[in-house]
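Q: I'm writing up a methods section and want to include an example of the input and output format. Could you take the sequence below and give the corresponding predicted structure tokens, formatted cleanly so I can copy it straight into the document?
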Amino acid sequence: MTSERHRQAALAAMPFLFVALWSTGFIGAKFGLPHAEPFTFLFVRSALTLALLVPLILVMRADWPRGRTLWGHIAVSGLLVHGAYLGGVFYGIYQGMPAGLTALLVGLQPLLTAALAGPLLNERLGAVQWLGLVLGLVGIALVLGGKLDPGEALFQGFGLGALASVMVALVGISLGTLYQKRFCTGMPLLGGTVVQYLATGTLMGLGAWLFETRQIEWTSTFVLTLGWLVLVLSISAILLLMALIRRGEASRVASLFYLVPPVTALEAWWLFDERLPPLSLVGMAIAIAGVVLVVKGRGARRA
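A: Here is the clean output for your methods example:
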């Protein structure tokens, strides 16, 4: 009985642990991008992740995906969840888009995922859950809006290329969540993650070769940031995400991303002494309430 309670507690904590880990991605980008171009940065990150995951699979004798069809589906999901999302976010920030605005735009993912889940996965959300999604979006806008100085130009300092890259990230993570839920349900977590990073590393390497100088400043800050992103984001957080997608409806998993900007704001306050005005605190409370409505509300219905 005690072990079962511990298991249930661990399962209940998984979404909150995922949010805590995932939120550090924007912080890592802020630390690392001054020392490496985005595609080069992500290629090295993918290569190091594979260097750790492959021996782990061999030691644990974990399963590999069975059949070429499943390998192909997993590779596609990796290109969307990792390649399009990470590439879009990192390139957008590198091109001058503020990290806060990037988080706000990518934070539209739950609404986009919920809208696409109907035609693609035949999922339906109840009115309470839709209310939760809208509240989450309003909360994100308040969190980030409260951090902007009066009169600041929201779209100043970057071009359409940065905006387009973040839109690619938004669409990629939304479609990737749905694609994996539909086509990769039999994916072994470790083996499948290796396939995803093989596809992502190939894409990032091609981008670095074609568009970048591939120069890296191996400072202590970059090394520590890279280590954190590999161990905590690319392995721990992604495995948690895959497990969460397997356990729940795609729209419910996507709702967790509403908590990332508020948590990131707290981390930025702690690390960089960024102020949190009252409007941002109110926005955090509204975003959390929206997530609770989606996650605790009535389950998605099948048409």
